[in-house]
Amino acid sequence: MRNFIIRTITAVFFVAAIVSCFLRPEAMIFLFTLVTGLTIWEFTGLVNDRGDVTVNQMISTVAGVFFFLAMAGYCSGITSASVFIPYLVTLIYLMVAELYLKQEDPVNDWAYTMMSQLYIALPFSLLNVLAFQSDADGVHFVWSIPLSVFIFLWINDAGAYICGSLLGRHKLFPRISPGKSWEGSIGGGVLVVIVAVLVWHLSEQYAQNPLGLSAIEWAGQGLVVVVFGTWGDLVESLFKRTLGIKDSGHILPGHGGMLDRFDSTLMAVPAAVVYLYTLTVI
After folding, report:
1. DSSP for 123-167?
2. What is the DSSP secondary-structure string of the chain?
3. Structure confidence at residue 251 as a pLDDT band (50, 70, 90)
4. CA dist., res. 90 & res. 62, Å (int)
5. How far is residue 81's CA from residue 205's CA, in Å, rounded to a whole number?
6. Digit-coded pLDDT (tens) for 151-208
7. DSSP secondary structure, 104-121, as one string
8. What are the tens digits of pLDDT across the range 114-165?
9. How many CA atoms lie within 13 A of 149 on its CB side?
10. What is the C-alpha separation between 242 and 244, in angstroms, rounded?
C-alpha cells in the first residue's frame, strides 16, 4: 500500500509537470532541457558500469543538452542553423579523443557515446519540431500537438494495463517483456483511437488544431504513438536486460529512473514528427 501511494503521488506530480510545462514555451524548454540532461547522465552512468565501456559522461550530457537548446532556438526562429556547429565540433572531438585515450574497446565507447545522442538527445529535441510551427505570420508555439503525444502514451499505458489484467492471454514479447500481452496492447490502442477522436473534436471546438488535422488523421497519430511507444518500451526493456538491471535509476520514487519513465517517448516523438511531416507533403 505504501508503495502504491508513493507511485500515485509521483505520477500526479509527473503528469502535472508535463501538462503545465506546455502552457509556456519557456517552461517546456526548461523542463525538457533538464529531462534531457538527467536522462543522458543516467544512461552514460549505466553503460560506464560495464567493465569494457568508458563514456565521457560530462561532455556527452552537456552535448545533448546543448543540442536540445540549439534545436529549440532554431525551431523557434531565434537562431540560425549555425547554432549547431559547436555540437558538431563536440561530436568530432568525442570521436577523435578515443585515438589518444588508449581504451580497451574504443568501438564500444564510440557506440554508446553516439547512442546517448541518437537515442536520447535527438528524440527530446524533436519535441521542438512539434511545438513550434511556422506560417506566413511567423513562428508560433503550439502546445496541443506535443502534449497529445504524452496524453496518448498515458492513455495507452492505462488501457493496456486494464485490458491486459482482465483479458491478457497471449504474450506480446515474452523474451523481453513477459508482462505485456496482445490483448492489452490492442485494448490500449483502441482506447487511444477513441481519445484521439475526442481530442480532434475538442481541438476543433476550441480552435486548437493548428495543423488542421481531421479526425482520421488524429486517430492515425494516436496509432503511431501507440505502436512506436510500445516499441520504445521494449527497446528500453532489452537495454536493461542486456545490462542485467531492473530499473534504470531511482530518481522518481516508485517509478524508477528517467529512462523508465520516458522510454516510450523516445520512439513515439520521432515517429509523430515523421507522421505529421508526411501528412504535410502528401
Report:
1. HHHTHHHHHEEEETTEEEE--HHHHHHHHHHHHHHHHHHHHHHHH
2. -HHHHHHHHHHHHHHHHHHHHTTSHHHHHHHHHHHHHHHHHHHHHHHHTSTT----HHHHHHHHHHHHHHHHHHHTTSS-GGGGHHHHHHHHHHHHHHHHH--S-HHHHHHHHHHIIIIIIHHHHTHHHHHEEEETTEEEE--HHHHHHHHHHHHHHHHHHHHHHHH--SEEETTTEEEEEHHHHHHHHHHHHHHHHHHHHHHHHTT--TT---HHHHHHHHHHHHHHHHHHHHHHHHHHHHHT-S-S-SSBTTTB-HHHHHTTHHHHHHHHHHHHHHHHH-
3. confident
4. 10
5. 37
6. 999 999 999 989 988 887 888 888 888 888 888 999 999 999 999 999 999 999 988 8
7. S-HHHHHHHHHHIIIIII
8. 999 999 999 999 999 999 988 877 889 999 999 999 999 999 999 998 998 8
9. 32
10. 5
Above 70 in pLDDT, residue 248? yes
How much is the average pLDDT of 224-232? 96
Look up cell 524548454; give the residue. 29
- Rounded to whole angstroms, the Cα distance separating 123 from 102 reads 31
Counting beta carbons within 10 angstroms of the beta carbon of residue 244, is it exposed (0 to 12), middle (13 to 18) or buried (19 or more)? Answer: exposed
- According to the model, what pLDDT value does residue 1 have? 63
**Cell digits of residue 43:** 544512461
Amino acid at position 260, single letter: D
What would the grid cell of residue 62 be?
A: 552537456
Select from 168, 84, 160, 172 the least CA-distant residue to 125. 84
Cell output for 124: 527530446
